Automatic annotation (TrEMBL):
PANTHER family cross-referenced by the UniProt entry: ALPHA1,4-GALACTOSYLTRANSFERASE 1-RELATED, LACTOSYLCERAMIDE 4-ALPHA-GALACTOSYLTRANSFERASE ALPHA- 1,4-GALACTOSYLTRANSFERASE
Upper taxonomic lineage: Eukaryota, Metazoa, Ecdysozoa, Arthropoda, Hexapoda
Keyword annotations of the record: Glycosyltransferase, Golgi apparatus, Membrane, Transferase, Transmembrane, Transmembrane helix
GO cellular component: Golgi membrane
GO MF terms, alphabetically ordered: alpha-1,4-N-acetylgalactosaminyltransferase activity
Protein name: Alpha 1,4-glycosyltransferase domain-containing protein
Amino acid sequence: MLLRLPLVLARFLHNGRLRMLFLGLILLLFMGILLTYRWQTDVQLCFIDTEPTESASSGPVTDGNAPVPRIVDDVLTTEPKPIPGRSIFFHETSCHRPKRKRQRPDSQYNMLQLTARQACAIESAALHNPNFQVFVLFASPTYLHYGNSSTGGSSGYQRHQSIIDAILSYKNVHLRQLNLWRYAAGTPIEEWLKDGRLFRSSYLFSHISDFLRFLTLYRYGGIYLDMDVVMLRSMEDVPPNYTGAESNTHLAAGVMSLAPTGFGHEIAEACLQDFQRNFDGSDWGNNGPGVITRVAQKICATKDITLMLEDRKRCRGFKVFDRNAFYAVPWKHWRHFFEPQLLEQTLAHTKDSFLVHVWNKHSKQLAIKVGSSTAYGKYAEQHCPRAYAAAGDYF
């Protein structure tokens, strides 16, 4: 068979159509590799910056008549810093790469962007937990406009600025950026980050979010929240070291609390170790829900989530809340938040919840008209009124 291979190959290349097809496939493969490499390189550049420069707090600088956007303050160097165990954290890991054709003076900058729904999550946390500091951490160099929504510009810009103004009207809300490498320095995951596996992930932004939630809890303790929640009541007095069950087989990583010292810090370190030991860039859930599920299974010495819920002593003080606490409406029923005919049913189903999780991965394309009779609209109207009012016609 091997002896005949040169003859088969010669006949194949002698056929003009087959030869063109072969060369075309080789070219497509090469282009795919090149584009993948370029995408990974461009994306990695999103999360690299130089040493910290002037911060947003230093005041506006003008370029001609227009204020130059300034970089958001670094969480590691700017006061106020997170209070260990008394802070709530959100992460924004999207990368808005500047366009090559600059259509606006600020298009060369990675401008701070938040949707009304993200602002709702932030506002609801600040509203219900006034004695906690709420930090929104951006994982790439991010810039902020000066001025407010009354300074002119397009209606889209004004609406976006109104959303930012809404959350910054709370004295306990702080916008910060971080540099992944400096943020990981001195932690158990510092060397692993340098390996580069994180940036080869098929779900890069999601897995950077997973990476950061465990790293932030290791650094500061406190409460981590996904940005697609609405908090319904205070969690200030809930003892730390908890997460919530999403199903009968898995815990979720969208709401977690760990103490900054002692057992809570040990759990955070265990999560970082599990993250790097079992990291799989091809599996969306392995590095978030998978991490906290595996760590809890070791702590509680069981894979049976029912036992984790029923036997408090088994988990040595690590609390696993049942689904009603954070995930009363499962992801398969995400539309219940958006369907007027299910309003009363959904509100009744979540009446004892600390918060609701609206499953942005599935629901982000479905807008609701402000003032409509949907569960999500009712939550927003009550628990994030300023962001809801700033959303415009649709939320």
